[in-house]
Amino acid sequence: LRNLLQGLSFSIKYYSKHNHLPPVCLYSKMKQKKCHILDSSGSTSTHQTLPPGSVLPWRFFSCKDGTKIPSKRKQNKSITTSELLYKDLLKSEQENWNDISARYKVMTKRIKEKLEELHKCMFSSGTPRIRFGENVYFEENGCIFLTKTDDVDEENADILFSAEDLGFSNAFIQRIRISPDQRHMAISLKSENSEEATCVIVKLGHFPVVEKVIPSVFSFEWAANDVLYYTTLKNLRCQNVFMTTFTNQKHTTELVYTEQDARFFVDINCTKDRHFLTINSNSKTTSEVWLIDCKHPFQLPALVQARTKGLIYHIEHRNYELYILTTHGEPAEYKLMKAPVTSSGMENWQLVYALEEKTKLVDLEMFSDHCIMFLKNAGHLYLNVISFVSQSVQSIKLPTWACEFELESHPEHTTSTCYFQLTSPVHPPKRFAYSFKENNLIEQAVQEVPIITNCHTTRLLAKSKDETLVPITVFHNMNSKELHRKPLLVHVYGAYGIDLNMSFKEEKLMLIQGGWILAYCHVRGGGELGLSWHKDGCHHNKLKGLHDLKACIMLLHQLGFSQPKYTAIAAASAGGVLAGALCNTDPELIRAVVLQAPFVDVLNTMMKTHLPLTIEEQEEWGDPLADEKCMEYIKSYCPYQNIKTQCYPSVFITAYENDQRVPLSGVLQYVQKLRQAALDHASRTSKKGDRIPNIILDIQASGSHCDSSWEGSLDE
């Protein structure tokens, strides 16, 4: 791949220099196509997710209708008995899936057609933009375009980059960074089959030229016009920071920083005023930040505050002062503090603003004279606008239907308007703007979506086993009658301090239109009520999340939202721990379970220290090798360890062959053990009318840990 790009780069330079026919079509006039926007969660959280505790970078946008990066060839290894067993299990499950999926062809076809139609309606209004002065950069269908702010006819936009023209097969553009003088552009291209991305550096001009290709990149930022800092990702870990320069036709690269502690993950960000780059080294509970002065990018990084166990902090900059978002002091929730750049130690931090109790800080955006905090409190969304000039704080409650924020990119911190989108699982994104000059919130005029949702949103509180009140967000069609007879889909996650993903999904709207009830249980372990909500549901408190989930489902049934025989539960990744545990402890509460890349074998995974995330994850789950009490506690709730002979709900699991986070082998063993327990129970009881649950595993050859293309997610 590198040789190909270097060859293309040489060709472009050579032909441009000698005025021959232009080679690859990197710069031309083209009518652009429309695409949809990737989730940002990753998370995940999708969601695409940054590691918990990391500073949010500039907002990036993506398109799945791109091209894929070929995965690396697997090295030949000697075949062991366990590998043969794994291959046999894999083959058996694939054959089983082929037999079962054939039964649903008619239903699948009908649902796919409806979702495709909804998708066309929802995403017909284009993609977000990056504004630099009079220039606007945007991405669609694997191409990056340039237009002018005053040019209303985007069909005249110029193409700066095309992933397809460069031979990147089935990759999508994940992130874009423009150099301060707009002469260089750095782009990350990511395949759905791997979590590693490739960074392509393009020299902009009359004929854009690919200058460098850097493999396995996670984050990157321009420190100066021709100086790029970046981190590399290897086995899901970021430890090294590099600096590369593009001067006088010479490309030099130097190692700048190395993280020695396996619990810490390193990324690069840029302060909003572009005065500093920050090297952020974060574990799940502790932070350390180093500063690079963008006016002196070759100087050694300067430490802000040495890592202190339990202290999380992130850095912004304004008027020669550092603005520090930190957990320093009591209570251990986020506060905004400040300190002089020259005296940045913790002893000099001064409080600017402290969050209210049980408030979640979703995001923070700095501007020249203001700061906007995006907050969640009791299920509602708020903006807190802090004026550094008047020393005042204004709180603005956002529409009650809104469940998620999505910020747009604001590269120029002097702008007078902050743009963002609001969405919910059943409400397509709506664009809003907050004007600092007018001091008001404006809903942007957009093309109306030709669909009437007619959806009612209810917020409830369930009393858990220890009397803690747990929030639930419920959606249902306002025209639905006899709700106790309607099917209910319960969503849960409850880990890493990450909120449930409540951004818009076409399939959620389709379910509401079909009479379903959707419930989102914001259990402990997640982050919906702040850092303490996460702390109260991790490590030796994991069972609290399970008790919360049970209390939520029981309250829904008591209030007449469906009943057990019409109730299903959906969870992804670490959400599989609570969903799988509930199947063991209270299978009578639910009829079906849908799991995506589920983490169901906590104990065995946390005992395998050779896996890339085990050491890093100990702050979330504990260390069973070093602590016998921890081992017994994990055993008490681990889904795989507690499978028993009983009547289980039907279970549908999607897993990915290329998943580096949740190994497929563990999912295969879980499915085999669960299916055997269900069959044993059926053979012992064998009463007339007893049902045997379906235990179905769909193994995706493409995709990697809940990160599949639109077509892949549509099939699923």
Distance linking N and C termini: 31 Å
Mind summarizing the main beta sheet? 8 strands, mixed
The largest sheet has its strands arranged as: 29-30-32-31-33-34-35-36
What name does CATH use for the topology of the domain at 452-709? Rossmann fold
Classify the secondary structure makeup into a structural class: alpha+beta
CATH classification, class level of the domain at 452-709: Alpha Beta
Protein name: Prolyl endopeptidase
EC number: 3.4.21.-
Keywords: Cytoplasm, Hydrolase, Protease, Serine protease
Main location: cytoplasm
Task: Lay out the secondary structure.
Blueprint: H1 2-17, E1 44-47, H2 81-101, H3 105-122, E2 129-132, E3 135-140, E4 143-148, E5 158-162, E6 171-178, E7 184-191, E8 197-203, E9 209-224, E10 227-234, E11 237-247, E12 250-258, E13 265-270, E14 276-282, E15 287-293, E16 302-305, E17 313-318, E18 321-326, E19 335-340, E20 350-354, E21 359-366, E22 370-377, E23 380-387, E24 392-397, E25 404-407, E26 417-424, E27 427-435, E28 440-443, E29 455-463, E30 469-477, E31 488-491, H4 506-513, E32 517-521, H5 531-535, H6 542-558, E33 567-572, H7 575-585, E34 592-596, H8 602-606, H9 614-621, H10 628-637, E35 650-656, H11 664-685, E36 695-700, H12 710-715
Parallel strand pairs: 31-32, 31-33, 33-34, 34-35, 35-36
Antiparallel strand pairs: 2-3, 3-4, 4-5, 6-7, 7-8, 8-9, 9-10, 10-11, 11-12, 13-14, 14-15, 15-16, 17-18, 18-19, 19-20, 21-22, 22-23, 23-24, 25-26, 26-27, 27-28, 29-30, 30-32
Helix pairs in contact: 2-11, 6-7
